[in-house]
Amino acid sequence: MPAPRAYTVILAWLEDQLRSGAMKVGEKLPGERQLAEQFGISRASVREAVRVLDAMGLVRSATGSGPSAGAVLISEPSTALAWALRMHMATRALPIGDIVQARLLLETQAALESASRPCSPERRNTLAEASRLLDEMDAPEMPAERFHSSDAQFHLLLTSLAGNVVVETMMASLRQATIGYVQETVSGLEEWPEVSCTLQGQHRAILQAVQDRRGQDAAQALREHITWFYGLSDHH
Asked: Which of 72, 106, 140, 182 is 20 to 30 Å from the Cα of 19, by its Cα?
């Protein structure tokens, strides 16, 4: 078994710092020289650690000098997960069919969970935002790319009603990971106006079921909607 890379000591240290509360999101990592001396590793290894943390969505680096320079702790898990999913989809290790099935499981379960959540101003605002998005998407001149972006936001808003940030993060990652696939599917459709009209009818039915707290109906409508859309690629 190969020895761990030198930079992993910084990853382990940062995990401990975050777990204990010694460091928090928004704070800056110690400087490159300080970390190299503290852990007895090269500055190149420190830079490698920062690049890995950046790819993981845990730091954002600013070059230059002065108070704004350095690596600041952030937390953007969906971005990192989406990149990993997309790369492994490209290798065919993660089949698109399994990605779609995972999305089905998450969204339908979220629909069931959200039906039993108490009414709150946040819920009303989220539903109002979802309705506003659908109104915008009704515009026949809306480009397919923008339609898809709003479509993704609509689904994420409904998923958020379940109140589970892990499910939200995973859903956001799955949506980002399948952007290329969806755009390829849409670009090959000569009958896009008819397809978008059908999608909007499905969206309206889903939203109505969610608003009425009919969890089973919402879950079934979501299943039919997602399956129908991804089935389009089988005919093109």
From this structure: 106
Q: Work out the number of other CB atoms within 10 angstroms of the CB of residue 4.
A: 10
Architecture of the domain spanning 78-235:
Up-down Bundle (1.20)
Fold that domain 8-73 belongs to in CATH: Arc Repressor Mutant, subunit A (1.10.10)
10 vs 145: CA distance, rounded Å: 40
Q: Which residue from 184, 178, 180, 217 is spatially nearest to 100, judged by alpha carbons? A: 178
DSSP bridge pairs for 70: 62
**Largest alpha-carbon pair distance within the chain?**
63
Give the mean model confidence (pLDDT) for residues 57-64: 82
pLDDT-derived band at 3, boundaries 50, 70, 90: low
Domain parsing of the chain, residue ranges: 8-73, 78-235
The answer to whether domain 8-73 and domain 78-235 are alike in fold is no
213 conformational bin, left if phi > 0, alpha if psi -120 to 50, beta if neither: left
Q: Is the pTM of this model over 0.85?
A: no
